[in-house]
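Lines hold sequence, tokenised fold; shown next:
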Amino acid sequence: MKRSAAEILHEYGPFPGVDSVHGVTYDGEQVWFAAGDRLLAFDPASGKPLRSIDIAAHAGTAFDGKHLFQIAKDRIQKIDPKTGDVLDTIPAPGGGRDSGLAWAEGTLWVGQNRDRKIHQIDPQTGAILRTIESNRFVTGVTWIDGELWHGTWEGDESDVRRVDPHTGEVQERLELPHGTGVSGLESDGGDRFFCGGGVNSAKVRAVRRPRQAAAARSDSKVPAGSKRK
């Protein structure tokens, strides 16, 4: 297993009126994050706030190329980002214990914080398709180039880790500074992860994603993850 200190490239925020960041996603232009009673978007180049949608936003956030998905307590909402309208809802697999959320090749991937699991679910019905076990709390999930990464946060320790998408075995860890939380995780499709700063933090951090040799990437049939948008 590779282990290294996370390289923090940038800190965004604190954002006015935001107490905590609960989920993060990226639509190719804007970074969106969940702030309890709102979804907010900002420009990752300047950090300038751009949008705000008044909607329940209690945990993970995802983007499928057209729609936003947002965990609100025990359900997942499908949202039109242009209007803010909720188009559909499905049950969240953890029944309110859900954390991270990601979209990959037609399905949603949902982190279970204290249950230490990641579920792949049907975005139409919420049915669980498969489950991956973790050995740490799961606080964010993302796919990129066939790699499954998730955030962790227990006590004053947190990291972003690459895991085997079949077994959950940890393959690489990027350790955040002591006392730094991770809530919500998303790749920008390239060399950055966007990480929510956690409860009692109004920040989002950009962390460098290590590049893997092409030969070392998984050749499995699992979803290929977030495409470059």
Summary: The first strand starts at residue 2 and ends at 5.
